[in-house]
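User: Hi! I have a protein structure encoded as tokens and I'd like to know what sequence might fold into it. I'm fairly new to this, so please keep things simple.
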């Protein structure tokens, strides 16, 4: 019975990593299309690039806030508060 579970776990992990790789390839392809559109001075590409920059800034700020929150939460659990 354990062999069946481990086989399912391996398949699940493979599918998980395959989906991550597919999404990363799609993101890279999209960024390349936007970059080439900006180089050609297309209006849609400039708008999309601006939105992507704003999204990236929000993600970085959110990541920093989450990191500080996780540190504080870890500190609270380590001290027993």
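Assistant: Happy to help. Inverse folding works backwards from shape to sequence: for each of the 81 positions I chose a residue that suits the local structure. Here it is:
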């Amino acid at each position: 019975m354990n062999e069946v579970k481990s086989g399912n776990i391996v398949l699940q992990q493979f599918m998980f990593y395959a989906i991550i790789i597919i999404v990363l390839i799609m993101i890279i392809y999209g960024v390349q299309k936007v970059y080439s559109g900006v180089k050609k001075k297309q209006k849609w590409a400039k708008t999309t690039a601006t939105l992507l920059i704003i999204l990236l800034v929000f993600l970085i700020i959110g990541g920093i806030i989450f990191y500080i929150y996780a540190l504080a939460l870890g500190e609270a659990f380590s001290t027993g508060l």
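A useful reference point when you look it over: The longest helix spans residues 2-39. Feel free to ask if any position seems puzzling.
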